Amino acid sequence: MKKLMLGNEAVARGAYEAGVLVATAYPGTPSTEVTEYIANYSDIKSQWSVNEKVALEVGIGSAIAGARTVVSMKHVGLNVAADPLMTVSYTGINAGLLIVVADDPSMHSSQNEQDTRYYGIFAKIPVLEPSNSQECKDYVKLGLEISEKYDTPVILRLGTRVSHSQSLVELKERNEVGLKSYDYNPSKYISAPINMRKRRVLVDERLLNLEKEAESISINEIEYNSKKIGIITSGVAYNYAKDVVLDASFLKLGMTYPLPTNKIAEFINSCDTVYVFEELEPITEQKIRSMGYNVIGKEVFPISGELSCEILRKVLLNEIKEVLPPFEGLPQRPPVLCPGCHHRGPFYILKKLKLHVAGDIGCYTLGGFAPLNAIDTTICMGASVGMAHGFEQARGIDFAKKSVAVIGDSTFWHSGVSGLIDIVYNKGHSTVIILDNSVTAMTGHQENPSTGKTLSGEDTPVIDFEALGKSIGIRRTRVVDAYDLMELEKVIKEETNAEEPSLIITKRPCILKKGIKFDFKTYVIDENNCNGCKLCLKIGCPAISFDGKIARINTALCVGCGLCKDVCKFSAIDIEVKQ
Amino acid sequence: MNIVIAAVGGQGAVLTSKILGTLAQNIGKDVKVSEVHGMSQRGGSVIAYVRFGDNVYSPVVEKGTADILLAFEMLEGARYIEYLKENGTLIVNTQRINPMPVITGEMMYPDDLDDKFKNLSINYIPVDALSIAKSAGTIKAVNVALIGVLAKNSSIEKDEWIKAIKDTVPEKFLELNLNAFEMGYRLK
C-alpha cells in the first residue's frame, strides 16, 4: 500500500518498521513532526525532552541499554546536543542509535543556517541524506543497521524540503527486533581518559571501514546518461537536478559522510564536465578538490539559502524562464503575534517603560518587530536569562534596573533555568519574565513541563515556576494576568526597581491551544468616540487597522481579548452588540 | 500539473495542499506536496506547492511554470504571480487581510490589484470565498470553497474531489466543508 507522507512522517514510519523502541526529541521546525508521528505508534516509547542535549542523553542511555532508538532535533538543536554527541562517537552504542537532524536552508524558521554534515565530520560518524519521503523511511532502517554493524551513532540529515514535503511511500510491516542484551562494559562506556584513548583508535579504524562501506552501499548510486555533464548531488538538490537536466549523468550520494572516493573518481573520469550541486556548504566539493580533481561547485552555485531548479537552469543551460512581471512595491506580510496573543500585553508595557529587553526563541520573538519593537536581542534558546545578567555585569545595577529578560515556558525549561540559577548564585539583580502560555507554541503546540501532559497525552505533574524560583533562592516571584495591563505595568516597575533578582510569570494559555475556552466577546470601534489617535495600533493586533480617519476592527479576526479596549484613552472600543 | 497555493498563515493552506495531494494520489499520479511552516504560521505570507504527473522530482514549483495559482487573499495572489505560467489560471479570494505594514500605516494596501490581474494574459477568476464560507457555516472553509472553484475548472471528475475531501478533512468538519465545496463548485 502506498501512502502520501510528509518526509518527517516517513521517518517515523521507518522507525516503526525498523523495530525502534525509544524516541526522544525537543521540538524544532522543521524536525518536530518526526516525534509527533512516532508518538502515534504505541510500540515506541516516545517523549519530549526539555532540550536536545537531554534528548540525546536519554537516547544514548536507551541504545546502550539495548533498544533501537531515534533522537530528533533541528540543526541548532544539535549544537545543544554537541557535547554528548562527541563522546557517544567514542563509546559507540549497543542497539542502533539514529540522530535525525533537520537543517533549514533559507532560514524559513531558524536563527541561522548550519550544515549538519560538519557535525558528522567533527564527531566522525556517518551521515545519510534522503531526497524524498520513501528514502526517509528506507534510510532510517539502513541507518540503524549501519549503526549496529559499526557500533556508531548515525546522523540522518534532513532539510526543510525533505522534512516538509509529501511524496508517496510504500508501507511495510514492523520488524520486531526486540531488545538487545545489555552488557556491563565499563571500559567501553565510561568516558574516562584511560578508556577513551583506546576508543579513539577504534573510532578512526571504524571510519576507514565506513569509507569502504560508502563505496559499495546501494544508496550511493551512479546513473549514466549523456556523459557530457555529470552532476554529483544529494538530498533535495538531486530532485531539482533531475527536473532540469534529464539527460545528464548523476552520482546521487545517499551517504554524504564518509564519501566514496573511488566511486567519485570513476564518475568524474567518465564525464566531460562535473558539477557538484549540494545544498549549503561545499563539503563534498572540497573533498573532491582535495583528491586533485577540478569540479564546478560553489563558484557558480550559492553557498547560502535553498538551491532550486531556477539556479541550476541558469547555470547549466543558461536559461531563464519567462515569468509574469512581478508587482512592484507590495507591502510585506511578516509573521505577527496572533490576535488575542497574551504576549502582546507584556511587550506593550516593556516598550512603554523603555526597558532593555533580552529576548529569546519562540513565537514571542515576534515582539521584537514593528509595531511592538520591544526586544533588544535574541541569540538562541535560553540565552535571554544569561544575557540579562551579562547586561548587568557590563553596565552595573542601574542598567539592570532598566532591563529584563523575557522567555517562554518551554524555552525556560529548555535552558533558561540554568541561567536563572547563575543569576542567583552570582548575586545578580535581573528581572526575568516568563511568558507562560502553557504550551510550546511556535512549533505547533507541543507539551512541556508546564502543561501537565506528556507527549502521549498522559497526565503528569505541572512543574511550578514560582516554587522553583523560591527553591533556588529568588524571594521575589510574582504571577500576573498577561491581559491586565495596569497590573503588569505596576509589577514590572516594582520588580525592575528591586535590588535583588525577581521572577515575573505572566500567565494565560496560548489563544490557539486546543480545549481552551475563553469568555471573549468581539469588539468594535465606536465611530463617535474614535478620534484617530492610532494608539490602539501600537499593540500590533492584526485585527485592528486604520482607515485613514479612524481605527477599524476586523471582526473576522478579532477574538475579543479586549487589550485594545484597555489601551484606548477615548473609550472608543466596545463590545459588539449582536443585532 | 503544477499548483501553487498562496495564503496568509492560518487560512488553511496546509490542509488544502493535503486535499490536492490526496486527490492526485487517488487518481493514480505520482505526487509531491511541499510547504513551509514555522514562523509563517503566525499570520505571515505562506506558499505551498502541489505537483503531480507521471514522474515528479522537485517538490517545489518553478517560477513561470504553475498551471494554477490558488490565492486565498488578493495581496498574496499578487505576491506570487511570478509562479504562474503565461495563460495559467489565477483563482483568487477577493478577501483583503491587511498585513502589519498596512495596519501600522507604513504602507498602503494596493487597491488596483483587480485591474492589474485583469490586464495580465492569464485566466483570472476572482471569488468572494469568504462570503461562500460564511454561508456554508464557517469562515474557516474559505480554502475548501476555493477548491470547489478549482474543481469546476479542472478536468478531474467531481466525485474524485469529494472523495479527496472526505479522505482528508476530519469527520467533525466534513459537512461544513462539503457545503463550501459545493457552493464553490456551483459558482458561475
Automatic annotation (TrEMBL), chain A:
<dbReference type="InterPro" id="IPR045025">
    <property type="entry name" value="HACL1-like"/>
</dbReference>
<keyword id="KW-0411">Iron-sulfur</keyword>
<dbReference type="InterPro" id="IPR011766">
    <property type="entry name" value="TPP_enzyme_TPP-bd"/>
</dbReference>
<dbReference type="GO" id="GO:0051539">
    <property type="term" value="F:4 iron, 4 sulfur cluster binding"/>
</dbReference>
<keyword id="KW-0174">Coenzyme M biosynthesis</keyword>
<dbReference type="InterPro" id="IPR009014">
    <property type="entry name" value="Transketo_C/PFOR_II"/>
</dbReference>
<comment type="similarity">
    <text>Belongs to the ComD family.</text>
</comment>
<dbReference type="GO" id="GO:0046872">
    <property type="term" value="F:metal ion binding"/>
</dbReference>
<feature type="binding site">
    <location>
        <position position="536"/>
    </location>
    <ligand>
        <name>[4Fe-4S] cluster 1</name>
    </ligand>
</feature>
<comment type="pathway">
    <text>Cofactor biosynthesis; coenzyme M biosynthesis; sulfoacetaldehyde from phosphoenolpyruvate and sulfite: step 4/4.</text>
</comment>
<keyword id="KW-0813">Transport</keyword>
<dbReference type="InterPro" id="IPR002880">
    <property type="entry name" value="Pyrv_Fd/Flavodoxin_OxRdtase_N"/>
</dbReference>
<feature type="binding site">
    <location>
        <position position="533"/>
    </location>
    <ligand>
        <name>[4Fe-4S] cluster 1</name>
    </ligand>
</feature>
<feature type="binding site">
    <location>
        <position position="568"/>
    </location>
    <ligand>
        <name>[4Fe-4S] cluster 1</name>
    </ligand>
</feature>
<dbReference type="GO" id="GO:0050545">
    <property type="term" value="F:sulfopyruvate decarboxylase activity"/>
</dbReference>
<dbReference type="Pfam" id="PF01855">
    <property type="entry name" value="POR_N"/>
</dbReference>
<comment type="function">
    <text>Involved in the biosynthesis of the coenzyme M (2-mercaptoethanesulfonic acid). Catalyzes the decarboxylation of sulfopyruvate to sulfoacetaldehyde.</text>
</comment>
<dbReference type="Pfam" id="PF00037">
    <property type="entry name" value="Fer4"/>
</dbReference>
<feature type="binding site">
    <location>
        <position position="541"/>
    </location>
    <ligand>
        <name>[4Fe-4S] cluster 2</name>
    </ligand>
</feature>
<keyword id="KW-0004">4Fe-4S</keyword>
<keyword id="KW-0456">Lyase</keyword>
<keyword id="KW-0249">Electron transport</keyword>
From TrEMBL, chain B:
<dbReference type="InterPro" id="IPR052198">
    <property type="entry name" value="IorB_Oxidoreductase"/>
</dbReference>
<dbReference type="InterPro" id="IPR019752">
    <property type="entry name" value="Pyrv/ketoisovalerate_OxRed_cat"/>
</dbReference>
<protein>
    <submittedName>
        <fullName>Pyruvate ferredoxin/flavodoxin oxidoreductase</fullName>
    </submittedName>
</protein>
<keyword id="KW-0670">Pyruvate</keyword>
<feature type="domain" description="Pyruvate/ketoisovalerate oxidoreductase catalytic">
    <location>
        <begin position="9"/>
        <end position="185"/>
    </location>
</feature>
<dbReference type="GO" id="GO:0016903">
    <property type="term" value="F:oxidoreductase activity, acting on the aldehyde or oxo group of donors"/>
</dbReference>
<dbReference type="Pfam" id="PF01558">
    <property type="entry name" value="POR"/>
</dbReference>
<dbReference type="InterPro" id="IPR002869">
    <property type="entry name" value="Pyrv_flavodox_OxRed_cen"/>
</dbReference>
<keyword id="KW-0560">Oxidoreductase</keyword>
